[in-house]
Amino acid sequence: MNILEMLEKQLKENKKVIENFGLKQADENEVEIRNLNRIKSARDGDRVRLLSTDDFALSGFTTDGCTNETITVDYTNLDDALANQLQPYDILIAETRNSFSNIAIIGELEDSLIADDAILIRFLGDNVENKAIALYVFLKSPLGATLISSWTLDHPFRRLSRSRARTVELPVFNDEFIAKAKSIFDNSQQLSNHISKLQSELTSLYNSVG
């Protein structure tokens, strides 16, 4: 069996597992799904804080403390930039190396923060935090990668078209999975914090040279 055949087999197996969750077309009254268009930088205008995909947390919440990047937006594009403004529990999906493997969930924000060139998923109504965490954990898994790929396969530039966004199907999570996802999320956040601490110690170690 060659690599391509192995990948196709894995894809089919993942699709079967996803179907076991049950898939439901996203209701626009319950969840907003859309592309965040790229914001063009200008010489003059307002400075706004921009979350780059490079600033996505390895795991757990991504907050406004993760980035110091800003971009100048001219007044004609300011409304577009504000439309990309993030809220707590937003999920961002960005393409890296030809796959949508860079995923973030936004935590509490102290200042205004925008993002661009990513797919935004925003839950509406009640129980937003638990729904968002459950979906984030699912999307970070191999099953999630399969699901995301199915959203963009029919687009020549691997973008989520407006018409496709209206028909996206999301897994239906029961209370048991939501509780399991919360536990996975909490553990992953602890591991991520530990990794960040080790990276900081490693940097300090090399900075001591000389």
TrEMBL record:
Q: Which Gene3D superfamilies match?
A: DNA methylase specificity domains
Gene Ontology terms, MF aspect:
DNA binding
Instruction: Give me any GO biological process, just one.
Output: DNA restriction-modification system
Stored InterPro entries: Restrct_endonuc_typeI_TRD_sf
Q: Which UniProt keywords apply?
A: DNA-binding, Restriction system
Protein name as it appears in the record: Type I restriction modification DNA specificity domain protein
Instruction: Give the species this sequence originates from.
Output: Francisella philomiragia
Q: What is the lineage of its organism?
A: Bacteria, Pseudomonadati, Pseudomonadota, Gammaproteobacteria, Thiotrichales
